UniProtKB/TrEMBL annotation:
Residues 11-146, 155-289 form the UspA domain. The lineage of its organism: Bacteria, Bacillati, Actinomycetota, Actinomycetes, Pseudonocardiales. The keyword Iron does not apply. It comes from Kibdelosporangium aridum. This is Universal stress protein. One of its GO terms (molecular function) is ATP binding. It holds the Pfam family Usp. Keywords: ATP-binding, Nucleotide-binding. PANTHER family: STRESS RESPONSE PROTEIN NHAX (PTHR46268), UNIVERSAL STRESS PROTEIN RV2623 (PTHR46268:SF27). Belongs to the universal stress protein A family.
Length: 299
């Protein structure tokens, strides 16, 4: 699908009135300015008045919620304008619930941006299965803005596991590094605890690492011609994937991962690697789902 490449599509931001959401707004506004696209601020106030039909005070309560939500979005629009002067800003307030709303908005978005913690309808957005579901269902890449001091000069880091999904993440990461004029750190982690425990004395670990180096080189083949201005640093490390990516994300301005990895337990990878990054990364995290960016055109 590759809709994130369509520069006519907006960067959508989920708004809930939290300081985290305002951080996401500022990040999204700067990203929209780089892309030359609008930023679209969206908030939902989760009205449940249908359960209490007949109460004469509910209409006034709903209007109060609506007015308060619009004030929150207006404050977010001001923050966006201050972060990126001249960026086009649109606003939407909906009587509904955040996750379905953001999933719908992602269908016509180039990027979906949220904060790492929230208030109101977005409370605990990144706890448990909700964030996992949003990352899995969104029709565009999802960026979770976290980290107290986001670098504007650090590299973009991408996790590569050799799967088609990591190719999607690699495409997004190269594009992000190129747009920012910064290097790309390609991290390939290999580790098999079961193998280590069972036959560790019999394994030629140097040979295994050499094979993993070849695999990473194969995955990166062709991208240098497509993005000649992006300097690439290759990292092949024997470690736990989440630990290695969090370590290399220190000082970075963005870390990019696929929505899940390879193998029969692929669904668990989002719950381990991506989930760990969403909670512990020192910088914003981009989760790229299969189909939300183009497969490698250079492979």
């Amino acid at each position: 699908m590759g809709q994130w490449r369509d520069r006519s599509l907006p960067v959508v931001v989920g708004i809930d009135g939290s300081s985290s959401a305002l951080d996401a707004v500022r990040w999204a506004a700067r990203e929209a300015a780089r892309r030359g696209t609008p930023v679209h601020l969206v908030s939902a106030f989760g009205w449940s008045g249908k359960r209490h039909l007949g109460d004469p005070g509910l209409g006034h309560y709903r209007e109060t919620l609506m007015r308060s939500t619009w004030e929150t979005v207006s404050a977010a629009a001001k923050a966006a304008a201050e972060a990126a002067a001249g960026v086009e800003i649109s606003e939407l307030v909906v009587d509904g619930f955040p996750v379905p709303l953001l999933t719908t908005e992602s269908r016509t978005a180039g990027l979906l941006v949220i904060g790492d913690r929230g208030l109101g309808g977005f409370t605990s957005l990144l706890v448990g299965s909700v964030a996992i579901g949003l990352a899995a269902r969104a029709q565009c890449p999802v960026v979770v803005v976290r980290g107290e001091h986001t670098s504007d000069t650090g590299p973009v880091v991408v996790g590569i596991d050799g799967s088609p999904i990591s190719e999607e993440a690699l495409a997004f990461a190269f594009d992000a590094a190129d747009a920012r004029g910064v290097p790309l750190v390609a991290v390939h982690v290999w580790n098999d605890r079961a193998l280590e425990d069972a036959v560790a004395p019999l394994v030629d670990w140097d040979a295994v690492e050499a094979e993993e180096q070849v695999l990473l080189a194969e995955r990166l083949a062709g991208w240098g011609e497509k993005y000649p201005d992006v300097a690439v640093r290759r990292v092949v490390v024997r470690d736990r994937p989440a630990h290695a990516l969090i370590e290399h994300a220190t000082g970075a301005q963005l870390v990019v991962v696929g929505s899940h990895g390879r193998g029969s337990a692929a669904g668990l990878v989002l719950g381990s690697v991506s989930h760990a990054l969403l909670h512990h990364s020192p910088c914003p995290v981009a989760v790229v789902r299969t189909g939300s960016s183009p497969a490698a055109e250079t492979s």
